[in-house]
Amino acid sequence: MKEQLALLRELQRIDLQLDELEDQKDDIQEKLEENRGFLDKLIDDLENQKKELEEVKSLRRQKKDDIEQTRSQLADRQEKLKAVSTQKEFGAVETEIDVLKKNLEQTQEEALHLDESIESTEQSIEEKEEKIVQLREGIASEVADAEQQLAELDEEIEARHDRQDEAREEVSKRVLHKYDFIRSRRPGLAIVPAKDGHCEGCFMAIPPQQFIEIQRGETLEICPSCQRILYFWEHALDDEDKVEGSEPVEAG
Ligand SMILES: [Zn+2]
Predict the structure, then answer these.
(1) Contact, 217 vs 231, CB < 8 A?
(2) Residue 213 contacts by C-beta under 8 Å, 6 or more apart in sequence?
(3) What distance in angstroms lies between residue 173's CA and the mean position of ligand 1's atoms?
(4) How far, in Å, is the centroid of ligand 1 from the Cα of 165?
(5) What is the mean predicted confidence (pLDDT) over 67-73?
(6) Distance 223 CA to ligand 1 centre (A)
(7) Staple 171 to which of 97, 137, 176, 236, CB 3.0 to 4.6 Å?
(8) Class of domain 16-170
(9) Ligand 1 center from residue 156 Cα (angstroms)
(10) 5-14 pLDDT, tens digit each
């Protein structure tokens, strides 16, 4: 059983490394998607702003027509004023002229506001377009980096998978089944050391008789509190030497 437990510890190290590698991959992909989402939103905003600009410009053209029309009406009335013969007619045309002048003033003011709006929208569009270019370049280089990182991670994962398969072959079905069962129920450690009468997984005390069994290392012992597989801590002292190219992984 001691050997089985040692194999299991090795399998666990590989499994934890694989978890860690998969997490790293997820992080990279998440970050890429975040950046792409940001870029898409900026492009959307830009499209909306361009539409908005077209609408304002069309409104501005309309105001220009209105101004022309009012001016021509004004000229017409001023011409008419010269020809009127009665005081009453004069007053009526003068009132018309006043109204037209007010209209003209108001329309010119509105046109001015539209000019300002066009200018600021054009400036904002220009800034967004620059930002999009920068972001595209940034993302392109990030994608290249990320793809390389992902390829490296995949390579590492594949190598670990090979070793995982080997380790699983070497462990007995019964022990492997127990290990898989514990891992399926909670992520992280499935096999933990027992030290000083305690389970190092949950830090609960182990009954003295069971602790003796664990020290003997001849049976598969399960922590009565957290249900993890237990081994005597001293049995794992030379574990690291047996695993080629792997480093211990922090248990989550
Ligand atoms: Zn425990």
Answers:
(1) yes
(2) 219, 221
(3) 23
(4) 27
(5) 96
(6) 5
(7) 176
(8) mainly alpha
(9) 31
(10) 999 999 999 9
